[in-house]
Amino acid sequence: MKKKILIFTALLLVCAAVVSGFLLWNRPVTGEYSSERNRQYFESLRAIENRADANDAVVTVNGEKITVGQIQAQLLTNQYSVESYRLACAAKGEAPDPAAIAQMTQTEQDITDRLIRNLVVRQEAERLKLTASRKEGKQRAEEVLAEVKKLAEDGHADAKEGLAFMTDEMLSRGKSLSAWVDTSAESYRDGITAGNLEAHYKANTKDTILNYEAYVQDLVTKANIKYHK
After folding, report:
1. Total domain count for the chain?
2. Which of 107, 30, 50, 39 is CA-nearest to residue 75?
3. How sure is the predictor about 131, in pLDDT bands with cuts at 50, 70 and 90?
4. Which one, of 165, 69, 83, lies nearest residue 112 by Cα?
5. Crossing angle of helices 180-204/2-16, nearest 10°?
6. Which of 98, 110, 144, 175 could form an SS bridge with 106, CB 3.0 to 4.6 Å?
7. Which helix (H) or strand (E) holds 103?
8. pTM of the full predicted structure?
């Protein structure tokens, strides 16, 4: 289970690299590994980054913006995931699970709501001085990359696919795989920070995990949220 989680996390962070400041919640489900498909996917991500309106605010949350580029990048990732999942099912002679496809098919508002939640969590962690350091984020990224490399060397198919995907992402930026750690450090930092807030909440209350979600939703409700588009 730990191995699967590490591979999953590594792939998630690759796709979060275009989004500065917090984690996305979906990684592409890559299915049968295809360097050409990955190349097209990353080229499309770069095109989103270079859009004239990429940094325009769709919404601001307590003065911090969520941009057109962030939302469009996640929409692209969802589309890639659905296509890859269908291809993987076809290769196995299996019918796609409608529930799985539905989970990968969020609307722009679904994506925006999730990004708002992530941003509010980070802001609350900052207020409580629970923010992880960049060093912690970089260390976590180094651990994940080392583990994925080891699993790939040991012949794990998921790890081989994950390593190839990470390599293609860096090549799309004109960099080598070794640059993946620095590219992913901030996203890992934000993930650790979110975990710090949840741990802090549980340590200081008798509430359940479900009540933690209610706590986060209350933070969202109280946030100063302004839509611009």
Report:
1. 1
2. 107
3. very high
4. 69
5. 120
6. 110
7. helix 98-104
8. 0.82
